[in-house]
Amino acid sequence: MEEHQREQTREVLADLSVAAFMNQNRCHLKRKSDPGFAYITLDDALNYNYVVHFLDSEGHKEYSTLDELLDDGWILD
């Protein structure tokens, strides 16, 4: 199941599925470790800037590649 979710996340962020960004131009993500919930903006995704903004704080983390983001455990929420 987890591998399927990872591949689904890759497809959505690589192909920029508009439906995934319908909520305030954000694609919501989750992972098992803290922080557990975040989002990536449509603008960032369109520019291949993988900046994950944490929902529970003002913090964020930048990833160089989509694979880095996925390797850190982020999947679609």
Short description:
The chain has 77 residues and is an alpha+beta fold.
DSSP helix fraction:
25-40%
First-to-last CA distance: 14 Å
Low-confidence stretches: none
Strand content: 25-35%
Count of individual beta strands: 5
| Side-by-side strand order of the widest sheet | 4-3-2-1-5
Instruction: Please give the largest β-sheet.
Output: 5 strands, antiparallel
Structural class: alpha+beta
Q: Please tally the helical runs, counting DSSP H or I stretches of 4 or more residues.
A: 3
Shape: globular
> Mean pLDDT, rounded to whole units?
93
Return the domain count.
Answer: 1
Any idea what the radius of gyration is?
Answer: 11 Å
Order of helices and strands: HEEHEEHE
Throw out a few tags for this protein:
single chain, alpha+beta, five-stranded antiparallel β-sheet, 32% helix, globular
Characterization of the model:
The protein is 32% helix and 27% strand. The chain has 77 residues and is of the alpha+beta class. The protein has one domain. It has a 5-stranded antiparallel sheet. β1 (26-30) and β2 form a beta hairpin. The chain starts with a helix and ends with a strand. The mean pLDDT is 93.
What's the structural blueprint in terms of helices and strands?
Layout: H1 2-15, E1 26-30, E2 37-41, H2 42-46, E3 50-54, E4 60-63, H3 66-71, E5 75-76
Antiparallel strand pairs: 1-2, 1-5, 2-3, 3-4
